[in-house]
Specification:
234 residues, mainly beta, four-stranded antiparallel sheet, 16 strands, 0% helix, 35% strand
């Protein structure tokens, strides 16, 4: 009696290992030909973002035209000082470091038009004349205007924004300083050391403002000066 026989011929089974990635090849030869399959590596590059600063609202959306008002005052026959706050709950100073400044960064503020800027209206006054604490114009600057603006970051509040794991360790608030033409044209708000988080975002509010106004400064409701906040990698 004859017995039926089933024969399957396997021609080859080849496994190949390649440095850096593993490739596995199966060759199965049968009645219908050769079947091949393979696995391979997929690569990904994540680049650092851009170190940046802005003024944002409570939802962290940029504020189109941020404005911070000093306290109202009246015309006086003596030198006077008004105060204000830079950074509020609806206009927060925002800093973002998306792995762009691993050595740290500094946040500074200065007059947009430079050291020769001033509070502009029908009759102007200065923001960086140190003579008699800003009460009168002195010979140390280039204009004929009195007045001096001081900024105190030390009283401000710094917290993390939307980052999940970052903190404020290694970020130091600046000290109270007054603008002085040609000597101190830029004031430091924050300084982040190399040990601070390389990936994070933060908001800063409650920075103190103090402006000395010369005596008999005329009444006006449109005194203003533009300041620019800048973040720079160390």
């Amino acid at each position: 009696m004859k017995r039926n026989k089933t024969i399957i011929a396997v021609s080859a089974l080849l496994i190949t290992f390649v440095t850096g990635a593993t490739s596995m090849y199966f060759m199965y030869k049968e009645k219908y030909g050769i079947v091949r399959s393979a696995t391979t590596a997929i690569t990904q590059i994540i680049n650092p973002g851009i170190l940046s600063t802005d003024v944002v609202d409570a939802s962290y959306e940029p504020v189109a035209s941020p404005t911070f008002a000093m306290t109202d005052t009246t015309v006086k026959f003596s030198c006077q000082t008004t105060t204000g706050t830079l950074g509020t709950s609806t206009q927060q100073i925002y800093v973002e470091n998306p792995d762009a400044a691993d050595g740290g960064w500094t946040l500074t503020i200065a007059a947009t038009s430079g050291a020769t800027a001033y509070w502009n209206s029908a009759v102007d006054y200065d923001f960086n004349d140190p003579d008699t604490l800003g009460c009168e114009d002195g010979a140390t600057d280039s204009d004929s205007l009195g007045g001096q603006l001081s900024i105190n970051p030390s009283v401000g509040t710094l917290v993390k924004a939307t980052c999940r794991t970052c903190g404020i360790t290694g970020i130091t608030k600046g000290s109270s300083s007054a603008f002085n033409e040609g000597t101190l044209d830029s004031i430091t708000l924050l300084s982040a050391a190399a040990a601070s988080d390389d990936i994070g975002n933060w908001v800063f509010t409650g920075v103190g403002l103090s402006q000395t106004i010369p005596q008999e400064q005329p009444a006006a409701n449109d005194y203003s000066i533009n300041l620019t906040i800048t973040v720079t990698a160390v």
